[in-house]
Amino acid sequence: MHIKRREFLRYIGFTAASAGAAGWAFDSSHIAELRSESSTPTATPLIPGAERWIPSVCQLCPGGCGIRVRLVENIPVKIEGNPLYPINRGGLCPTGQAGLQILYSPDRIKSPLKRIGERGARQWKAISWDEALNTVIEKLRKLRTADAQHKVVFLDGGARGLLKEMIQRFLMVYGTPNYIDTSNRRNAVLPFLLTQGENDLPVFDLANTNYILSFGSDLLEAEGAPVWQYRMYSRLREGKNGARGKLVVVDPRFSITAAKADKWIPINPGTEGALALGIAYVLIQEELYNKSFVEQFTFGFNNWKDKNGISHLGFRSLVLKNYYPEAVATITGVPIEDIFRIARGFAANQPGVALFGNGVDRYSNGFYTQLAVHSLNALVGNLERAGGIRQ
Q1: Which of 100, 93, 127 is nearest to 112 (CA)?
Q2: Are strands 304-305 and 311-312 parallel, antiparallel or unpaired?
Q3: How far apart (Å, rounded) are the C-alpha atoms in residues 279 and 323?
Q4: Cis upstream peptide for 351 (omega within 30°)
Q5: Are 280 and 266 within 8 A, CB to CB?
Q6: How far is 258 from 44, CA to CA, in rounded Å?
Q7: Per-residue pLDDT tens for 159-170?
Q8: Helix, strand or coil for residue 141?
Q9: Model-level pTM?
Q10: Distance (Å, whole) CA 323 – CA 316
Q11: d(CA 265, CA 256)
């Protein structure tokens, strides 16, 4: 299929507009305009009081739940979960239910805006999509004619799936390397890229796990795929073979997830990584870690030398030297007995997973905290394992 540059830019603009409307887009939120659009020759003939349901996907959070939208005279009036969709199976969180409030909000931006005053003056006027696209195309054409394509920067605030790939390919063909992903998803992916070589988020097999150790991950609130996580939490509590799964939450805040946990561990903000390494200390010192997995599938656990003969400190030595329970308790505010209890419980109730969420990755040391938390999964051998982490 051949797509011209103008058509591609128009597609990007339309898709961006539709993302703000929970997966389905309309050019205006005014009912009169919706009715006039539905009466065009290409639209479905309007029958007074006619009702229909259309399937779509909610885009108000990363979960991507399936939805059904009820239209009366082609006007959206209700959103429900789609029972045939595998992620939510008919369920829908309050955020998804509130999609109509975004569509009909008086503050919703309904068209491109053009600055008409000086920078910082906050003076804008609404323009048509054609005018906006022509302006962008003309700017791009001038830069390319001047051999200055590299001056173009694309800031991506969270495009998904094929749209993200199409943007990247367009920029590559145009001639600029300046693609910047500003979404926080990249922060969550990077630890897995550097530890496992996977440039994407893994699948946490919560359906088959026995123990969830959560570091700032709001499983039962508004992080990840909430509806799916509610279902997995129910399965965890149902248990397997008569054993009820456990949930331990490390978080400075007494969240809804913490309230539902077997144990809430309050901690000094920003010190979650130190606690994770303190737990690693106990696993290593008491030989509770999976020795076979560590020996076969990891590198850098023990001290090592590079090809130039330079010695490097291994993970084991680093942890045993610096993150003994007394030091960790002082840093984190977590009692020593809780550090031992968590480590022994995590090792004894396998398969289990150690999770990190927005509660840790937005600190200045968030990247290193994520690496520390993920090291616990490697220590107990929960990579590519049922009930652990799958790619």
Answers
A1: 127
A2: antiparallel
A3: 9
A4: yes
A5: no
A6: 49
A7: 777 888 899 999
A8: helix
A9: 0.71
A10: 10
A11: 13
